[in-house]
Amino acid sequence: MLEKLKEQVCEANLELVRRGVVIYTWGNVSGVDRERGLVVIKPSGVDYEGMKPDDMVVVNLITGETVDGHYKPSSDTPTHLELYRAFPTIGGITHTHSINAVAFAQAGLDIPALGTTHADYFYGSIPCTRELSQQEVEEAYEMNTGKVIVECIKELRLDPMAIPGIIVKNHGPFSWGKDAASSVYHAVVMDVVAEMNLKTLLLNPNAEMKQYVLDKHYMRKHGPDAYYGQGKQ
Amino acid sequence: MLEKLKEQVCEANLELVRRGVVIYTWGNVSGVDRERGLVVIKPSGVDYEGMKPDDMVVVNLITGETVDGHYKPSSDTPTHLELYRAFPTIGGITHTHSINAVAFAQAGLDIPALGTTHADYFYGSIPCTRELSQQEVEEAYEMNTGKVIVECIKELRLDPMAIPGIIVKNHGPFSWGKDAASSVYHAVVMDVVAEMNLKTLLLNPNAEMKQYVLDKHYMRKHGPDAYYGQGKQ
Amino acid sequence: MLEKLKEQVCEANLELVRRGVVIYTWGNVSGVDRERGLVVIKPSGVDYEGMKPDDMVVVNLITGETVDGHYKPSSDTPTHLELYRAFPTIGGITHTHSINAVAFAQAGLDIPALGTTHADYFYGSIPCTRELSQQEVEEAYEMNTGKVIVECIKELRLDPMAIPGIIVKNHGPFSWGKDAASSVYHAVVMDVVAEMNLKTLLLNPNAEMKQYVLDKHYMRKHGPDAYYGQGKQ
Amino acid sequence: MLEKLKEQVCEANLELVRRGVVIYTWGNVSGVDRERGLVVIKPSGVDYEGMKPDDMVVVNLITGETVDGHYKPSSDTPTHLELYRAFPTIGGITHTHSINAVAFAQAGLDIPALGTTHADYFYGSIPCTRELSQQEVEEAYEMNTGKVIVECIKELRLDPMAIPGIIVKNHGPFSWGKDAASSVYHAVVMDVVAEMNLKTLLLNPNAEMKQYVLDKHYMRKHGPDAYYGQGKQ
What we know:
Four copies of one chain form a homotetramer.
Chain A: H1 3-18, E1 28-33, E2 38-41, E3 57-60, E4 66-68, H2 77-86, E5 92-95, H3 99-107, H4 116-119, H5 134-155, E6 165-168, E7 172-177, H6 180-203, H7 211-222
Antiparallel strand pairs in A: 1-2, 1-5, 2-3, 3-4, 5-7, 6-7
Helix pairs in contact in A: 1-6, 2-5, 3-6
């Protein structure tokens, strides 16, 4: 079932390796089929080498039950499901432990919007969530990770498609997009932007970008009058 | 039309990928045919993989109108055109978001001339432009980016062929040279020099190089009595 | 003799090169056969290129004497033997000079537990040993390096399988695991974590992680109720 | 003439590229034939790609005159000749602009001996030379670069084979060894050590290593009773 989505999700997982944002079994990508209420996700703790579409696991979007696949789904599945349920516009989710984004997560700092590379994809700072409480960690860690992400996005009144990623304190980045491939793209960009911004802050701790530059760069790619790229045919 | 220049410009764009200074669709290279008043440039938002000379776009140097090609030109085309019109000696232009040069751009700092690697290609600090005003950004962002670069080079009374690159505040590097390939070469060197200089400043915030070392290294490669390399046959 | 273990140890040594944590002849991996009281280890100062299982050296776990092989064993062999003798649960040991772990070793600082990447493999800070005394260095350097590691682990009352690595002051990382491959895995993770934590500390010198997050992440992979991965079949 | 030495020197130059310490035409390696009083060196400003032994240039050790080859020798040839004339034990010399060693050179700081990776190859800090005077730069820059290196080594009473490299202020590293390949090896190690030590100093500006650790590590590889490696057969 869901052969096409399995292919997309498998390919998006393999792209993580090619782009150098994961090693070993780290990271995971999923995609959702909204009509059927099903999520396709990487299996837990399985090597990328030799991974095939048929190894992907299908889980129920609401109940989280596995409905297809010969492996257990990623242990981060409950986090993915929380995000899909809270944000109906997103179609794919990626989680990595990419080094530069993790550095900001461990520092407990937002990745600030300091330049146009950032502004081309993220319409403002990439927020760092609050710390999970001991109770949240012990009772339902992965689900509560998702809830804390959702809480952070909602409290800041962000459009998840305009800030397609976040970093979880002491953990690392989650990103999303219209589909699995797009969420990987945002994971890669987030790590590059984090490296740029770390280096920027070492040179100038007071660096900042004007709001109107952020507006312009984001809008020329994503606004109603976007003119970057070849347009929709 | 302009088959040879399209080949050179396409090849120069692909070189950006091989040298690791761009990912995805980031960056763009152009070349100019001064006699015909035409500029050949990378299409907007198109992947490097599989890019062919025939995909390059030809625009009018004065009017900016597309005169050949099946794609829209790079959204940064107006910036390139401003530079070609202001600096008659340059034949090719490159724009990237390479990480180390961007770090200086986001920090709002010149890339200082601290060593002979820098001096072999750039006869002095690589300047960081002033911030564009809100009006400049909103009215004609890409053209005004070009105007701010030209203003910076002219105010500092620099010879653009002696300082073949600049960083635009909060944005990133633009570089140029006698042709498209040369502008890519300068883009790569600028990022290496930026990494060297960032690390130097972390070790010693007061690092500097004497003017006579700068003079010597630049002149032995580029002066009237240059003796580096195999000479002109 | 020990053909299977030689294959595993040779393969683990070659993996060091593929993972980019050693260059030239740096680093070494060993594995132990507890029943026979024998250790298989990389030969001293031999290139990785072309290295074959038959080039591995077999030494006696107790006496350190070479009992098989056409090369001299790694000069670090006495360090490995000390660790195998002190920690009966470990089956493989790796030593590298990987850049980021060495930076902490040279700084004389523990690699602090700042995030879940760390917590997935190391149940607490990765300690930095005390400095060896002049007498310890001059009398039996490699053996005393082992003794200082053992002393550090015991004084901190650590389970070596829960903190499967350490950094030796002014020297570099040693790691271990259930077998040779596992010790390499921990060497690679330690260097990635060291890079993350160095960058974190540059952003926020006061960064820290709550104990309950460390508990959760370590236990979901390694505790009695571990649920990460596909489980034991 | 000197076919064997040309092959060694060409191969050593190509190794610079494979090890990632040079790009474009940067860097150069030479080797000396002491009996004939001739030096074989890379041609000036020629690409590494497709470089053949026959492209190497032979110059007279005393006069510096080109005695064989179809190219001009590296512009740094006078620096190499000064070193060969001052240090009769060295057989090969390498110059690069590798990023981390250059950072120390631009900072005007010695690369301090902070760990055993350093101590395995360099018996003490790798010194940074004094700045050349304006007169030295203008009159005979490359020759005086060599003289300043020699002055530095002699003033510090160093054995050039025990400290097989140096960094020239505002310029970059020169290294040497018993032959061309060995000088490249030391160039690569110097850059790795520079990266380690830069990161160490960011973590702990007061980091240091005891003299007796330096003694031990250097001597176990290079002393009269060296026991690292497979020994001389």
